[in-house]
TrEMBL record:
<comment type="similarity">
    <text>Belongs to the protein kinase superfamily. CAMK Ser/Thr protein kinase family. DAP kinase subfamily.</text>
</comment>
<dbReference type="GO" id="GO:0035556">
    <property type="term" value="P:intracellular signal transduction"/>
</dbReference>
<keyword id="KW-0723">Serine/threonine-protein kinase</keyword>
<keyword id="KW-0418">Kinase</keyword>
<dbReference type="Pfam" id="PF00069">
    <property type="entry name" value="Pkinase"/>
</dbReference>
<dbReference type="InterPro" id="IPR008271">
    <property type="entry name" value="Ser/Thr_kinase_AS"/>
</dbReference>
<feature type="domain" description="Protein kinase">
    <location>
        <begin position="26"/>
        <end position="285"/>
    </location>
</feature>
<dbReference type="InterPro" id="IPR011009">
    <property type="entry name" value="Kinase-like_dom_sf"/>
</dbReference>
<keyword id="KW-0067">ATP-binding</keyword>
<keyword id="KW-0547">Nucleotide-binding</keyword>
<keyword id="KW-0808">Transferase</keyword>
<protein>
    <recommendedName>
        <fullName>non-specific serine/threonine protein kinase</fullName>
        <ecNumber>2.7.11.1</ecNumber>
    </recommendedName>
</protein>
<dbReference type="GO" id="GO:0004674">
    <property type="term" value="F:protein serine/threonine kinase activity"/>
</dbReference>
<dbReference type="GO" id="GO:0043065">
    <property type="term" value="P:positive regulation of apoptotic process"/>
</dbReference>
<dbReference type="InterPro" id="IPR000719">
    <property type="entry name" value="Prot_kinase_dom"/>
</dbReference>
<dbReference type="GO" id="GO:0005634">
    <property type="term" value="C:nucleus"/>
</dbReference>
<dbReference type="GO" id="GO:0005524">
    <property type="term" value="F:ATP binding"/>
</dbReference>
């Protein structure tokens, strides 16, 4: 495997086509979504009539050539081609300014919508259990081949259909990296970008994704983002102190096994966190019922973790600081922080308020 020093893969199998994309595809309907540097549109392949999602990626971002980042994204998608929970890559087109990834279309959209949906739209715990199993199977497959996603959040987990609730597809491998012990050291070996105290912390590992899955589960179950503060700095502090609560009002009717599951992931020390394979064996995901929890009491005994260590940035901050592959992206990452929900994240209560007003 051809890899540069920051865990990006530089060799791909897919033939990059230079003919005009529009000769082979018709764009249909509205945009499916967009991120910082990409627009995703639904398209129909003229020769087959099949629907796909075309992700248009700008090669230059903030004056930097980011073609290698896109090649890395393609390489990761190729390596996960057999993974049923990773979106599949059909074709790639390139123009002077853009690369177009023709992807399987996940017609159900982002799980984000249902995370913040009102009662009848929102996921039930049963839904979350089924979807969490799929996310974990997908992520376990990535981790088995030493790929870390590094941007797992409700906007990057899509559904094949929303009603009836379909299956999940993991998308957006724009920040993904190959990690094995050698790479991790190399990523750490870019000290000029990293504050010395940050270097004392754990490097990027598959456990980094597991933390995100803990946050993701919390959001899917409650519609509330557990670490979100009023300011970015407060959010970072909440994360680094593992300042999290499972209050009774928002956890009403949610099983104590679900809380136990999240607590096995939202642990500061990445080595202590459950792996994707561990998670798949957790009783919550294996049909064990549990009595309704007395969350206030269990909360009291769970705070010890954040008190046992001096205050320090979480391992995720390290990743943020260590990115140096594309300055545009690294800036974006620092600005957005390790916390996956960078946009103001509405809670169900807030949405309700807006609807009433
Ligand atoms: P970015 O790297 O800019 O965040 P993403 O790959 O996350 O780009 O795509 C942006 C958005 O486009 C996603 O959050 C999702 O809403 C939508 N999208 C991406 N891929 C697909 C797909 N294969 N099918 C349907 N919608 C998609
Ligand atoms: Mg995205």
């Amino acid at each position: 495997m051809m890899m540069n020093k920051s865990g990006m893969v530089s060799k791909i199998q897919t033939r990059i086509r230079t003919e005009p994309f529009k000769n082979y595809y018709d764009l249909v309907g509205r945009e499916l979504g967009r991120g910082k540097f990409a627009v995703v549109k639904k398209c129909v392949e003229k020769s087959t009539g099949k629907e796909h999602a075309a992700k248009f990626l700008r090669k230059r971002r903030k004056g930097q050539d980011c073609r290698m980042d896109i090649i890395n994204e393609i390489a990761v998608l190729e390596s996960a081609a057999a993974n049923p929970f990773v979106v599949s890559l059909h074709e790639v087109y390139e123009t002077t300014s853009e690369i177009v990834l023709v992807l399987e279309c996940a017609a159900g959209g982002e799980i984000f919508s249902q995370c913040v949906g009102e009662n009848d739209e929102a996921f039930t715990e049963e839904d979350v259990i089924r979807l969490a199993r799929q996310i974990l199977k997908g992520v376990a497959g990535l981790h088995l081949s030493n790929v870390v996603h590094l941007d797992l959040k409700p906007q990057n987990i899509l559904l094949t259909s929303s009603c009836p609730l379909g299956d999940i597809r993991i998308v957006d491998f724009g920040l993904s990296r190959h990690v094995d012990s050698a790479d991790v050291r190399e990523i750490l070996g870019t000290p000029e970008y990293v504050a010395p105290e940050i270097l004392n912390y754990e490097p990027i590992s598959t456990a980094t994704d597991m933390w995100s899955i803990g946050v993701l589960t919390y959001v899917m179950l409650t519609g509330v983002s557990p670490f979100l503060g009023d300011e970015k700095q407060e959010t970072f502090l909440n994360i680094s102190q593992v300042n999290i609560e499972y209050p009774q009002d928002i956890f009403q009717g949610i099983s104590s096994l679900a809380v136990d599951f999240m607590k096995s992931l939202l642990i500061k020390d990445p080595r202590q966190r459950a792996s994707a394979e561990d998670c798949l064996k957790h009783p919550w995901l294996n049909g064990h019922s549990s009595p309704l929890p007395h969350l206030r009491t269990s909360l009291l005994s769970e705070n010890s973790q954040s008190e046992s260590e001096p205050e320090s940035p979480s391992p995720e901050l390290l990743i943020v600081a260590a990115y140096s592959t594309c300055s545009g992206q690294s800036e974006m990452k620092v600005a957005r922080g390790p916390f996956p929900f960078d946009e103001p994240f509405p809670t169900r209560a807030k949405i309700k308020q807006e609807l009433i007003c």
